[in-house]
Automatic annotation (TrEMBL):
Stored Gene3D superfamilies: P-loop containing nucleotide triphosphate hydrolases
InterPro entries found in the cross-reference section: AAA+_ATPase, ABC_transporter-like_ATP-bd, FeS-cluster_ATPase_SufC, P-loop_NTPase
Any one GO molecular function term: ATP hydrolysis activity
Species whose genome carries this gene: Cerina litoralis
ABC transporter domain ranges (all copies): 2-246
Protein's UniProt name: Fe-S cluster assembly ATPase SufC
Protein's UniProt keywords contain Phosphoprotein: no
Family: Belongs to the ABC transporter superfamily. Ycf16 family.
One Pfam family it belongs to: ABC_tran
Length: 250
């Protein structure tokens, strides 16, 4: 589903990613871990096509298609979803109206007509029920006055509605208490699918107690310095990241 070859990326002339190689197959969940400033969120932004991140070398493929010339909107239409670490508030725009617009814009980008209103309503009800979301929540302004847990839960609802091929969750656990973390993780687990690849970016192993990854990759200084299974996350929890720095080639 996702293939990254020798990816180098810079921000304001400063190199952040220094040769990332990564493959994620449909049906797999990969966790990206690493200390602050290692390049985790830059990797997510580069895949999503954020313009302030300049790709200086390397290639990103989604389903075998090179994304080099695709805008962020085009990448979203092709099936890339990025959950924000700090979702923004949009007063006056309800959760429901936002998601209706997002779905129909993606359909338009793929040459399809708007989803019929009755079909849209049915889909919203199904996904809200799947994720145990109260109907009143859907009529609120997007993220306005939401708790940290509600904001992240709303991101998972958007993911459920948009049904992406590749879902990137950038520090979904940031600022969540243990109850909110369980709710969000439960939502992600319900959306695991043999047709979907998921990338989970996190500092801490605790999220991975609830979302069990197939593979764990550690980024340091803009490179993947170690990959393994979920046991690697446990080792990082015990030892921290310092022991891996020696494996990073600067």
């Amino acid at each position: 589903m996702l293939k990254i070859k020798n990816l180098h990326a810079s921000v304001d002339g400063k190199e952040i990613l220094r040769g990332i190689n990564l493959e994620i197959n449909a049906g797999e969940v990969h966790a990206i871990m690493g200390p602050n400033g290692s390049g985790k969120s830059t990797l997510a932004a580069a895949i999503a096509g954020k313009e302030e991140f300049e790709i200086t070398e390397g290639e990103i493929y989604l389903g075998g298609e090179n994304l080099e010339d695709n805008s962020p909107e085009e990448r979203a239409h092709k099936g890339i979803f990025l959950s924000f670490q700090y979702p923004v508030e949009i007063p006056g725009v309800s959760v429901t109206n936002f998601i209706k617009t997002a779905i129909n814009e993606s359909r338009k980008g793929r040459g399809q007509e708007d989803m019929p209103a009755n079909q849209m309503l049915k889909l919203i009800r199904e996904k809200a029920e799947l994720l145990d979301i109260d109907r009143k929540f859907l009529s609120r302004s997007l993220n306005e006055g939401f708790s940290g847990g509600e904001k992240k839960r709303n991101e998972i609802f958007q993911m459920a509605m948009l049904e992406p091929k590749l879902a990137i969750l950038d520090e979904t656990d940031s600022g969540l208490d243990i109850d909110a973390l369980r709710i969000v993780a439960n939502g992600v687990n319900k959306l695991r699918s043999k047709d979907r690849a998921i990338m989970v970016i996190t500092h801490y192993q605790r999220l991975l107690e609830y979302i069990i990854p197939d593979f764990v990759h550690v980024i340091h200084n803009g490179k993947i310095v170690k990959s393994g299974t979920k046991e690697l996350a446990l080792e990082l929890e015990e030892k921290g990241y310092d022991w891996l720095k020696n494996e990073a080639v600067v």
